[in-house]
Amino acid sequence: MGGGRIDCYLDIASLFSYVAFVDLLGNLDKLAANGVEVEFHPVFLGGIMQASGNKPPWMLPAKLKYLRYDSPRAMAARGITNWASPANLFELARTQSPLRALHHIKASYPPAALHATFLALFRRFWAPPHANFTDDAVLAATLAEVVDASGARVFSDDEVKAIMGARDGMKDSLKAETAKALDLGAFGAPWIWVTNKAGKAQPFFGSDRFGQIYNHLGIEYQDVQVLVPGAKL
């Protein structure tokens, strides 16, 4: 059993994209052992929301109230502790610039570089004092801080300059990837398109559908179980 692929469409301005990314990143080796390929796709959430007619949580008071409980639970479950919701999220959510940089990195570097950069951008966006990536200096400084698993810098100073300069050439790539997500039915992020070994594909929305995703892929996983007092697994 097993096999297939997971295509995850996400934006750094989406908290639950952060959650899904960390979850998938921590399971890449196990998924690969099951024959499952994972690919991350940078998309502009603002464009998806507008085109799909969806509304951000802060425009829906009931949803915003619920997220005050759900967001901390989701982040804690993935071990993400240094985070907060920025007061100026609407301003910071103009993430086209870092998303274009990610597209260039994806096209020019091995997947590990994309993964490390995504993680660095997520951390800087959601950790106080919250990076404003509409400022080129802030984005360049963050790219210079990206490190691999050994702690070594991923990009030299010259490479950071090249990535910053290449962003304009990635406008169409970002638009096309965002349009692809919309074609697949996306109305938010993370939007996860999962194709099993038989070639059957299904969409999944959010960061808490991995049990359903693994069922669709036909791979084994450990699910939540209720135990009687004193019982042992």
Automatic annotation (TrEMBL):
Pfam families: DSBA. InterPro entries: DSBA-like_thioredoxin_dom (IPR001853), GST_Kappa/NadH (IPR051924), Thioredoxin-like_sf (IPR036249). Residues 6-217 form the DSBA-like thioredoxin domain. One of its GO terms (molecular function) is glutathione transferase activity. GO terms for cellular component: mitochondrion; peroxisome. GO terms for biological process: glutathione metabolic process. This is Glutathione S-transferase kappa 1. The gene is GSTK1.
